[in-house]
# Entry
Amino acid sequence: MTRAPLALALLAATALPTATLAAPAGYAPETGTVHGAPLPAPTDRPLVPPTATWDSFHGQLNAQKYAPLDQITAANAGQLQKAWEVHTGDVDDGSGGGTETVWSATPIFANDTLYLGTPFYRILALDPGTGRQKWAFDTKSELKPLTQPALKNRGVAYWQAAAPEPGASCQKIVYIGTMDARIFAVDADSGTPCAGFADNGVLDVNRWNTTNARWPLSVLQPPTVVGDHLIFGWAGKDWAYEQAPPGSVFSVDARTGRLEWTYDTLPAGIRDQTGTANVWAGMSVDEAHGLVYLPVSSPSPNYWGGNRTAALPTTTAVTALDLATGRMVWTRQLVHHDIWDYDINSAPTLVDIDVDGQTVPALIQATKMGFLFVLNRLTGEPVWPIEERPVPQGDVPGEVYSATQPFPTRPAPLLDQSAKPEVWWLADLVGFGECSRLFDSLSYEGMYSPPTTTGGGVLAYPDSSGGVQWGGVAVDPVSQTAVVNTSHIVQYLKLFDRETYDRVAGASGAENGYYPQEGAPYGMMLDVARNWLGMPCWKPPFGELVAIDMKTGAVKWRRPIGASQQYGFYMPESWGSPTIGGPAVTKGGVIFIGATIDSKVRAYDLGTGRELWSSIVEAPAVATPAVYDYKGREYVAFVAGGNPIIKDQVGDEVVAYALPQ
Amino acid sequence: MPSPTRSRRRGAIVLFAGAIGGCAVALYNYFVPLTGVTGSGGALLVIVSSALVAAAALVLPALAGRAGRVVLRTLAGLGILGTALAGLLLHEGWLVLAMAIALAGLAIDLAQSRAPARRGVAA
# Structure
């Protein structure tokens, strides 16, 4: 983003906002867990697969991102070598008039093959031991930024019949979604379309886009496959419209594409006046209890809620559905009346934990706010108390404010969102006081400080990119250690009434950090708090890796992760890096993660947090790695695709590492 | 026994060798994939700065005026130190080593430029 928004915001700064801890302003949040359909009858499916499994986006349906492999250990991880490397060719940095690519695919290992989706919406099937391409399938999808600013893909999904018929095609299927709202199904052995799936192998998801259909329902996150169900949400366009397509999740038959059920995240009476609360991130599944867990995002528009003044307890929430029927079993709202774009943005991680002498079937829901909500995954009730605490109230005409927000008491927040971040003296010095002046013009009384039209605006920390992003939490289920990477990013936000917005943002809108929220009475400006040189105005670290003992909720260790990099110059590693992409953990006591600005992939000691190994890849590896065993050799595979949220560098590299043979 | 002219040039030769070596390292890191700084502005900056130090090494022996030599040595020294610092931040260890050689060359050049003058005073 350019500096124009900052300059305009400073020019507009006339008075400090008047947010105070005030009485409720007419909005009654639905607190606690809301219960619905009865819990399905349990089966004996284990939560943790008995053998090494990495056949879905989060490795396993429980989203633990855990490999029970111990060939690579903390003692020998330093010897890791590149086993193979592939460049897909599906990359565009946008400089030639094309659309920039953002590639966050986690490779999946199934059918003795490594499957990948690319941001050009192709499926690649690779030999897991050599990277040799077995086949490729091109959806020939439109390569235009229909909903997202870049061409995005987070990979593919895999299904296989319980008893595959020998010689028959499409007994094993790979699926890829596209930005133009289609899901393609191809035979996992040959890459040929499965004609029996939907319309000759293609499911048009947009046929269900019937309310506020301003853009296609982009399927960028691979569907969740459980049994013979293919369950998926979709992604859209942020900050553009007041009314947008309302959130919905679909389950279709994995063989035929026939619709089984739909779950609408918003009640019927309000869908057309708001929208989204979509499920754009991954989901997790407790097969034994027949539940699929949805991270549900915030309603539209993101930074003003005057069009949705009733309690909407199923938004910015974690929700458990009966995966056979789609009926809601329970839901728990994690942000009331969300006007901060604090989407719940990662699949909850399912793990059984021993707390106070009892084994609790738990889930860990990471959030953009830096909270980890730990709930009983069967009931939605907190494992440790969650307190409703008063939060600041705002003064924007037409808006309503929730008087309280839920604060988990354990684990402690991953970052301190209670006090205004301190100005970093170095950035302030280089900026000749620019950062101090900016922070002085911004209000902040904790992360739930409401958006405002006054002063320079409000400081947003954590900002809408987190906290924690879609990589979520990895867990070693044996030691019950959770591992999560965080970002510490400060943005600032200001609302403008429509007339002022049109004047300061220009008729084109959505440029230079301005976003119209078209239809709402307020447009908005959002920018990162930086000085003229691009240095962050807030104190490092800018990102951390944290390990938590889930038996007690106590932090085992935390450390800055990676290094920030600007114009090629590396900053000290003690400053850390903002992160996108999640960790994977192994039985060998190793954490693998990319995620950092410096385009390095790393291994850490699960027990101590000590860095064991690193390697440079083509671009930031903004996806969770895959860990798999192939012919007796343990591999860790990364996709280095980049994301302009953290660095303007893209790549098309798939790289696998292993110990020397 | 080396001639005074060749002796004066020894420092410039070492300075040039360090600078041109640094320039080669910087070019490699800029153009070769997976160096960590490929195509970056910082890597481009040290290509230019090390090339300028190399150019200074070529000009230095031919410069007649004392004031001009002082100015050029000062600029070359700043260029070397700045490039070395940039090399540290770019994690280009070989560039830092090359700049250390260049700095040694500059020191030799400086020492040799002073040596005849001191002999002259003693005589």
Remarks:
- Confidence is low (pLDDT under 50) at residues 1-25 of chain A.
- The interface with chain B takes residues 567-571, 598-600, 616-618 of chain A (CB under 8 Å).
- The two ends of chain A are 47 Å apart (CA to CA).
